Structures are given as C-alpha cells and as structure tokens.
C-alpha cells in the first residue's frame, strides 16, 4: 500500500504551515506507515562541542511522526503531539541529520510511532524516540 | 542555599553558546535546584491553530533543565540530555511561555528534573516533562 | 470535592477484581483527583541487595493511578494503561511502600497522573512516574 | 558473538535470586545483546476482561532487559532499573506471553534496551518498552 500523501505534497504542506521556521527538515520518503525526513545542520542546531542538539533531534522526531501519520490518514493538520519519549544514545555529529518514523499503532484516538535519528552516512542510531499523537475526533 | 550561577551569568552563557539561535528563551530565576525561563512567542514557535508548538515546549524543557543543573554544579556545558519524556496536557496558547524545572535527583552520573510549561499568566500546566541529563565524568 | 469512591469500596473492588494476586497493596486514601496506596513488603517484592523491586514499584504506580481515576469517574474497570514512564531515583528500602497519585489531566479519552513512590517513613521519593490511562468510549 | 551467559545459567540465577516469586517468566533465548523470556499466564496476571495485566508486561520488560545485559556483561546482579517507558499498543490476550529485549546501547554507566511483548502465537506487538538500567561502577 502506498502513502496517502506524496513527498511533494508533504513538503508543500510543511512549507505553508511552518513558514516562520528557518532551516526546516524536508521529507524525503512517504510510504504506508513510514516517513523519512532530512535536514542540513546549521549553527542554530549545534551544542557546545559540535553535536546536533537534543532539541533539533526532538523536533525532527515530532515532525517525522506527523508525516508518518499523514501517510495513512492524509493531511490532518490538527493532530497534536500527546507524548514524546526520547533516548539519546550516542552523539549525533554530521553535516546532515536523517529521521525515520515507523507507525507502531494507529488507533481511533492515538497514533504511536517509533523514530530513529542518525547523522547522514552513519549506521549508528544517535537517538530513539516513541512519539504519540492524538487524532482529533472529527476527521 | 543559593544558586551557583546567577541569572545574569546564565543568560550570558546561553548568549555565547547558542549565538546561532533566534528568539531564545531567557532565564528569569536561578535558585538552588530550581530554574525558570521565559520566551516571547513568535511565528516560528506556532502550529496550525495558533498553539505553541510541541518542539518549542520540548526545547524549553531541555534548556531549563540544563539551567537547573547549573544552579547546583556551576556552568557545566558538556552535560548532555540522556532522556526526555514529555506529556502534552493542554493546548499552550499565549504571547509568552514560562518553563520551570525542579531537580528531583542529582547523582554522580545522572541528573533528573521535573519540568512544567505554561503560557504566561495561565495557572494551568500545558505540558509536563521529566528530563534526564548525563553528567560527564571529569568535573 | 470528595472522591466518587470511598476507600472501603475501592479496596472491595480490588479484592474482587484481583483475587488471584497475593500481597496486594491497599488503598489508604481516596480524595478528589488523588489516591494513596500502601503495601507491606514481602520476599517476592525484593531484589538482590534487599531493595524493593522495580516491578513492585511499577505495579503500585499503575494501581494507584487506576484508583485516582476512580475518585473522579467512579468505578470504571475497563480503563486500561496506555503509557507508563517511571524514573527510579533512589533505592527504595523499607518494610512498607507508599504510592501516591495525583491526576494532572482527565480528558475525554485520556487520564494522566503523576505518581511518587517512597518507603514508608522516608521523606525521599524513591521513584517517580507519569502514568497515562485510556478511558473507554462508553461510560 | 554468543552470549556470556547460557539460558540454563540465566534461569538458575533467577531461580536463586527471586525464590520468593511465584509463576516467574523463564528465559528461552540468550544471544549477544538479545534475550527472550516466556511466561505461562495464570490468574494473578489477568485484569478484568481477561487481558494480561500492564504490571505483568512491565515486569517481563524489566526482567528480559536484565537478561539482555547479562548476555554482554555476564551475571551482574547489582545493575538496577533507572527508567522504564512502556506503551501499551493492543490488548495482550493469550495463555502465554513472550518478551524480547534487544540492547540499543551498552555504555559505561547505562544500558538501554528496546522490548516487545506479545501473546505467544500472535504476530502483533501488545506492548513496547524502552528500559534503561544503571551499571554499577565496580564490575
């Protein structure tokens, strides 16, 4: 089964909805229940020591889960994050960051995704998150 | 017991360390084991519907925990986030956002803080987080 | 506002519903949005080193949240745990264990509680949990 | 690479260490960085409605992570749970329960594992956990 939303439409939505944000991550893959986003790291994303910051990784985990939900439900802007649990396993060091979300569950009121974040080109997972979104009643 | 780092020194550190970030939150209180930060909301912090975004709240939770650790240990820039668990309880709507962290535990290798985020002027907690930081061996 | 369920009725419900369990914890307080349970520690609750085990504390966190929900909704047996996040802050050592839950949010589909677990007589919190329950649609 | 501890030795350790517990789960697989445990469900493990209880699943998640750590470090009884985050995705209904842990990271002070719990014979994951253990300094 393919995604209900294409990569192009996903990026167009994000461009429109978050026009105030700089240096956003961009969707590179939209499949059924799975999405990948990529971001070029710039100064605002770094911590002392040159690591990709925790907040940068959390933001990508949140966004890529939002996209993974769209692959099943279509564009549903009013879904909101209910819970995010993130473990930072290793330093994330690189010029670009990749975030991948896989839906674990899509219920009537909640969607739960597993997310892995890594530096582009690295095999090792920098951080791992479980992100839960609430799905609004009227769809 | 008072904080090992003043509000002024905390803000000076953040200014220096995160000079690439726009519209950061600013420290307003540093007490022993407790810190508060405040941020004026701007377009980049908002989601469709006008809510303060999840990532904005996660970023503040992460930063204010970092500051709460400084109140006990002094400025220790190489402490890094180990785990963040955040529950979004209610929409966060307002022109400014307040984040407060209280240390639950400060051990040899881990610091754990409880964080509450709310819109300035609101009594209700918008989101609640438990943030764990790793404390580097050489201090 | 008082609890919709008394301590006696709460314990009677637990006695009936979990008759297969040995050495359960017992409810000692039911107030609006708040519940406390107490358990005498026995061998099955201990880990090597004599500490109250993690699973014992998780079980109490889960049960006391269930009770805190009852204080607002009455006896709703089909509510089920959706998410539990627990941080073990300090060893829990003692002959009895106290668990206290406070509702952070009670929505249409989710209830979120904050739980503290401590050894009876100790001021220090051994573990801290955020427990989320799903509230079934038909009530 | 094989496990530092065999299935037999793992079960012997658990038998000795937790002799006060009834109806424990038993280790069925010990590989490098991976462990599986199985438990026959009995009345004490069930909730109203016949589901395998949340605490039963949490306990198995905690135990199987303990075992996964042993596969790499040998028998280290004093490692203790630092954090457990569990999402209950679907009802767990069956006569036996299977828990599988896979180490995501094994550092100097922390071990992090991903755990899946399912009813024996079912393909669908009932619950998913990330469990973090502290590794004591002297090893």
Structural features, described:
4 copies of one chain form a homotetramer. Chain A is α+β, with helices and mostly antiparallel strands. Chain A has a single domain, classed as Thiol Ester Dehydrase, Chain A (Roll). Helix content of chain A is 22%, strand content 37%. Chain A has 2 helices and 6 strands; from the N terminus they run αββαββββ. In chain A, strands 1-2-4-5-6-3 form a 6-stranded antiparallel β-sheet. The model of chain A has no long low-confidence stretch (mean pLDDT 92). The A-B interface holds A 17-22, 42-49, 51, 54-55, 58-59, 62-63, 77-78, 80-88, 91 and B 17-22, 42-49, 51, 54-55, 58-59, 62-63, 77-78, 80-88, 91. Strand 3 of chain C pairs antiparallel with strand 3 of chain D, so a sheet runs across the interface.
Q: What's the number of domains of chain A?
A: 1
Q: Walk across the major sheet of chain A and give the strand order.
A: 1-2-4-5-6-3
Overall shape of chain A: it is: globular
> How many E strands of chain A?
6
What is CATH's topology name of chain A? Thiol Ester Dehydrase, Chain A
Tell me, rounded to a whole number, the average pLDDT of chain A: 92
Oligomerization category of the chains in this entry: homotetramer
Strand content range of chain A:
35-45%
Alpha-beta classification of chain A? alpha+beta
Radius of gyration of chain A: 14 Å
Helix content of chain A: 10-25%
Most strands sheet of chain A: 6 strands, antiparallel
CATH architecture of chain A: Roll
Distance N to C terminus of chain A: 21 Å
């Amino acid at each position: 089964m393919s995604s209900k939303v294409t990569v192009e439409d996903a990026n167009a939505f994000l461009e429109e909805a978050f026009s105030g944000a700089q240096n956003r991550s961009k969707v590179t893959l939209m499949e059924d229940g799975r999405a990948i986003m990529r971001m070029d790291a710039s100064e605002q994303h770094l911590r002392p020591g040159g690591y990709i910051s925790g907040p940068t990784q959390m933001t990508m985990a949140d966004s890529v889960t939002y996209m993974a939900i769209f692959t099943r439900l279509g564009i549903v802007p009013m879904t909101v994050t209910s819970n995010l649990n993130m473990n930072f396993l290793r330093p994330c060091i690189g010029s670009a960051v990749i975030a991948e979300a896989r839906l674990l569950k899509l219920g009537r009121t909640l969607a739960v995704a597993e997310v892995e974040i890594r530096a582009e080109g690295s095999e090792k997972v920098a951080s791992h998150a479980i992100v839960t979104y609430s799905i609004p009643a009227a769809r």
